[in-house]
Amino acid sequence: MEEILIELHLCKKIHTSEGDETLDVKIEIPRLGFITLFGQSGVGKTTLLRMIAGLTQPDSGFIKVGTEVWFDSIHKVNIKPQYRNIGFVFQDYSLFPNMTVKEHLLYASQDKETSYISELLDVFHLKGLCNRKPGRLSGGQQQRLAVARALARKPQILLLDEPLSALDSETRQSLQHEIIQAHTNFQATTLLVSHDINEVYRLSDFVYVIENGKIQEQGKPGEVFNGTKIKPDIHLIGYIVGIENNILTVSVKNTIKKIIITCDELANLQINDKILIKESA
Amino acid sequence: MNEAFLQTFWISIKLASLTTIILFCVGIPIAYFLTYSSFRLKVVLQAFVSMPLVLPPSVLGFYLLLAFSPNFWFGNFFNHYLNIRLAFSFTGILIGSVIFNLPFMVNSIQTGFSNLPVSLKDASFTLGKSRMTTIRRVLLPNIKPALLTGVCLTFAHTIGEFGVILMIGGNIPGKTRVASLAVYDEVQALNFNLANKYALFLCGFSFLILLVIYGVNREFLKWKRF
C-alpha cells in the first residue's frame, strides 16, 4: 500500500462562465506520485493548486500533508505559503525580470548549495544561459527556468499549473521528458494541472477529472481516457498535405496543423485525404 | 543678498530632500497595502492619500496650522514631550510638505506595483520568501522607473510648493523662507531683479529634474529586456 502524502478536501465558491459554482474536491496523493488534475479551462483547477499553495483561501475543508495540517477551516489553521514546502510553476512562469538565470536559483535555494544548483542547471540545459535575464530567454528556456526555480527550494511537493500550454509541440515534447526526469531525480511528489490528454498520458500515473466543480472520474490515465469518456469540443475537417514519419501535416481552413499518429493509423492514410480531427479545448 | 539667496535655496533643497526621504520610506508600505490588500475599506485610505491633489493648499495649510497650535493635542504633544514648536518652524513645514506630497510618491509607487503581474509576488512567497524580502528583492527592483518618478516628482513638487508653506511656515528668512515664497516676496517689494533670479533658478531646476526622469526612464525601458 502506498503511503499517502497529501490528503485534502476543499470547498470554494468560484465564478465560472456559467455562473457561480462550488468547487468541492476530495483528493489523496501518494508520496512520490505524479498526479494530474484534468478538466476544461475555468473549472477551478488552478484555484485548487493555489489553495494547496496557500495563495487562495478555501471556504472550508482541510489540507493535510504528512503529519502536518496546512489548512483546517474548523480549527482555524491556515499556514502561510512561505511555510508550505512546495514548488509552484505558474502558467505565465512568473520569472523575475530583474534576475539572471543563476540569480533565480540562488534566490530560491534555501541552503545556497552550489552542487545542487549546478545539477539543476544541468538537467534543465540552462548552464550556458546563467547570466541571461528572462527577457532574453526563449519560451522553452523560460519554462525550464520556472521548473528549475521551483525545484531549487527542494520542495516536498511540486505544483505545475499548465506548464506547457504556451509552447510549440516540439519544445513540449522535450520538456515533458525533462519534467519526468526531474520528478524522478529530485523526488518531488508532483501535482499537474492540464487539459492536454497527451500530456496527461505521458506524464502522470493517476488522474482526477474535474467537471462541474466535482471529481467526476479518477484512475490511471489509460482507464480514464479510453476514448469514449472525453467529449471533444471541436470537430475540424482538413486535408492531409504531408506525411512524414508519424507526423501528419493537415491543412485546416488555411492553417497548418501537425498531428502525431501511430503507425497502424498511418497505413490507411495518404496525401489529399479528407479527415476529421477532434480537438478538446 | 547673495548669502540670503543661497540660504533660501538651501532651505528649499533641504526641505525637498528630507520630504523625499521620509516619503520614500512611508510611501512603499502604503503603496504595497493599497495594491495588494483585500481590505474592504482601503478605498478610504486611498481617498485620504489623494486628498492633497484636489484640496487647495490654503485649506490644508489652515488645518495643519490649527493642528500645530499648542492648544491642540497634536501641537501640544510635540511642544510638551518633544519640545518642538511646529507652527512657523522648519519641522512644521516638513510635516506639512510630507502630507502635501503623499499622493505624488504613493500613487507613483502604487502604479508601479499594479503594473507588475501579481504572480511575481506569489512566486516569491511560494519560494519561502517573506513579504519584506519579496518587496526588497523582487518588487522594488522591477519598478525602478516608478520609484524614480515618485522620488523626482516629490522632490520637484516640494521645491515648487507655495500655499501650504506660506500658511504654516510664515515666510521667516533663514528658517521657513523657501525659494518659491521668495519670488512672491521680492515681487511684493518691487525687487523684480531678484525675483527674476529666484524664478529663473526654479525654472532651470524643474526642467533638469524632468529631464532626469524622462532620460533615465528611457534607459530603464531599454535594458529591461536584457
Describe the protein's architecture and organization.
- The complex is a heterodimer of chains A (281) and B (226).
- Chain A is of the alpha/beta class and 281 residues long.
- Chain A has 2 domains: 152 residues, P-loop containing nucleotide triphosphate hydrolases (Rossmann fold, 3-Layer(aba) Sandwich), CATH 3.40.50.300; 46 residues, SH3 type barrels, CATH 2.30.30.
- Chain A is built from 8 helices and 15 strands.
- A 6-stranded mixed sheet of chain A has the order 7-8-9-3-10-11, sandwiched between helices. A 5-stranded antiparallel sheet of chain A has the order 2-1-4-5-6, with helices on one face.
- In chain A, helix 4 runs parallel beside helix 5.
- The mean pLDDT of chain A is 86.
- Chain B is mainly alpha-helical.
- Chain B has one domain: MetI-like (MetI-like fold, Orthogonal Bundle).
- Chain B is 79% helix and 0% strand.
- Chain B has 11 helices and no strands.
- In chain B, helix 5 packs antiparallel against helix 9 and helix 6 packs across helix 7.
- The longest helix of chain B is centred in the N-terminal third of the chain and has 35 residues.
- The chains are: A alpha/beta (281), B mainly alpha (226).
- Chains A and B meet through strand 7 and helix 4 of A and helix 6 of B.
